[in-house]
Specification:
The structure is a homotetramer of 160-residue chains. Chain A is of the alpha/beta class and 160 residues long. Chain A is built from 4 helices and 6 strands. Chain A has helices at 13-27, 64-72, 98-111, 135-155; strands spanning 2-7, 31-36, 50-56, 84-91, 115-117, 128-130. The interface between A and B is medium-sized, with 28 and 28 residues.
Chain lengths: 160, 160, 160, 160
C-alpha cells in the first residue's frame, strides 16, 4: 500500500507541508513518495492507493499546474474510483480562498470516485498554512498524516 | 451495520428519492431506516454507521430543517468521526443550485470527520433529480445505494 | 437608499461585527438598520437596496436561522433581483468552514439575482473573525463597510 | 465600454455559447470581443470593463488553460477591482460539476474585487449547457448577455 503526495510549491511553504505529511505517513509504516507536480504523469496516479495533493491558494483554487494534471487524468477516468484522497494548501491570508482551494481538489477527487474524509478537530477540509508554516499548521499536517493512514487502512482492510 | 436516511420533502420528490435509495440499500443486505428530518434528534445520528441526507435545493443549499439538525449535532461533535456519509437533492432546474446543495451537506459531514465518496459515472457529488423523478434520477439513486453499501463494507471491513 | 444588516449571534462576536459594519456604513452617509434574524420577516428584505447577512460558521455554512429566512424569502423570489448583497462570519478556527459559510450566503444572494463584490486586499469573500474580534477582523469589517457603500452608490447611480 | 469574452473550447460547445453571448451583448449596443484563452495575456484583462470567462466543466472546475490565465493575472492584482464579471460552462452531465466550475471562476473574480450577479430565473450562477447546446442553453446565454449589459450599465452609470 502506497501513498503519492503531489505538490506545487513556488516559495517552499507547500513543499514543507508535503514533507511533514510524508514523514508522518512514513512513521505510520506506510510507503510514501513526494513528487513535484511537473514530474508526475496522470498515468502515475494509478500506482498508489492514496493520493494527496498540495497547492498554494491561487485565486481560490489550486495552482493551474495541479489543475492541468487533474485535467489530464481524464484519460484514466474511473480508474481512480475507490482510492483514498486528501488535499492541503498554503495561503497568504485568513479568508484568502484556502478552503475553496482545498475543496477544488476534493471535488475533483469525488468526480474521480475517490474517498475523502474531513477532521472534526484539525483544519476541517485539509491542512491550511496561513502566511508561514507555524506550529498550528505543522500540527495540522502531522494530524492529517495520521488520520489519512488510518482511513487508508480501514478502506483497504489492512490490520495495523 | 445500519444506515439512516434523513430527508425533508415538501412535494414528495425528495421522499421518493429516499425510498429508492432505501430499497437499494436493503437489497444489498444492509439494515436501513428512512426518517423525516422533523422526527430525527441529533443524538439519533450516533446509532448508525452510515448517514444519508436528502433535501430539496433551496437557494443553493439544504433546506433549513436539515441545517437545523446539523447545527444541533454540535452537541455530539467528534462522535460522528469516521462514519460514512452521502447526500442527494431534488431541484427545480439544471444550474439551479443542486450541486452546491449537496456540497453544503457533504461539507458539514467532512467537518464532522465523516467519510464521503463521489461517483465517476453517475451524478458525481450525489444523486440529483431535476424537476421530476425521471429515469435518469432513479438510476442514479439505485447506483448511489449500491456504491454507498460498497463503501460502508470497505470502511467497516465487513465481507459481503 | 438604505441597508439592512441581518445577523444571528449567540456569543456576541457576530453582533459586534455587525455593529462595526453598521457604524462604517453610517459614517459614509447611508441609512442602515441592524436586526437580529429572528426579528426579520422575508417581506422586510424588499425595503432595502443593500442586504448584508452575518452568521457564525456552523458546519461550513450559515446558522439555520439565517437559512430559514433565506428559505422563506422564496415568497418574494425575483423581487430582490438587482439589489446589492454581502456577508460576514465569525468562526472558531482557521480552516474551520468560514469561507464556505460566507459563500453559502453569497450563493443564495446570486440565486436571488443579487449583485455581490469581493475584495482584492481584505478578506476576499467577506469579513471573517477567527476566535475573537481582533484588530485584523475589525479592520476587515470597516473596510467592507466602505466598499459596500461604494458598490451601492455605483449600482444605484448616486453621486457621493 | 467594452466586454471581453475569454473561452477555452475543445469540442466547440463552449465557443458556441461564447458566440451567442457575444451577439447578445452586441445587440445591446456594447462593444465585445471574443478570444480563445491561449491568445489572451493577463495584461489584456485591464482594457475591458466587463470580463466573461467560458469553460468546459473539467473535474468540477474550469479548464487549466483558464486557471493559468487567472494565476498569471496576479501580476495585475487589485487592478481588476470593481470590474464586472460573469462565467458560463458546457458540461457532459447534469450533476457533473457544472455549478462548481462556474463558481471556481466567480470566486477568482471576487478575489480580484470584481462584481458579479446571479439570475433568479435562468441558470442561477451562469449559463450551463448539458451535453449539447439545446434551446434551453441558448436561451440562458441570450438572457445572460442582456443581464450582463444591464449590470455593466448600472455599475458604470451609463444611460441606455
Amino acid at each position: 500500500m502506497r501513498v503519492l503526495i503531489v505538490y506545487y510549491s513556488r516559495t517552499g511553504n507547500t513543499k514543507q507541508m508535503a514533507e511533514i505529511i510524508a514523514r508522518g505517513i512514513k512513521e505510520e509504516g506506510i510507503g510514501v513518495e513526494m513528487r513535484e507536480v511537473e514530474k508526475v504523469k496522470a498515468r502515475d496516479l494509478l500506482d498508489y492507493e492514496g493520493l494527496i495533493f498540495g497547492t498554494p491558494t491561487y485565486y481560490g483554487s489550486c495552482a493551474y499546474q495541479i489543475k492541468r494534471l487533474l485535467d489530464e487524468s481524464v484519460s484514466f477516468h474511473s480508474q481512480l474510483d475507490g482510492k483514498v484522497g486528501g488535499a492541503f494548501t498554503s495561503s497568504a491570508n485568513v479568508g484568502g480562498g484556502n478552503e475553496t482551494a482545498i475543496l477544488s481538489i476534493l471535488e475533483a477527487m469525488l468526480i474521480h470516485g475517490m474517498i475523502v474524509q474531513g477532521d472534526p478537530q484539525g483544519d476541517h477540509y485539509g491542512p491550511v498554512a496561513i502566511d508561514s508554516l507555524d506550529a498550528r499548521a505543522r500540527d495540522n499536517c502531522e494530524r492529517f498524516a495520521k488520520r489519512f493512514v488510518h482511513l487508508l487502512r480501514r478502506v483497504y482492510q489492512q490490520a495495523r
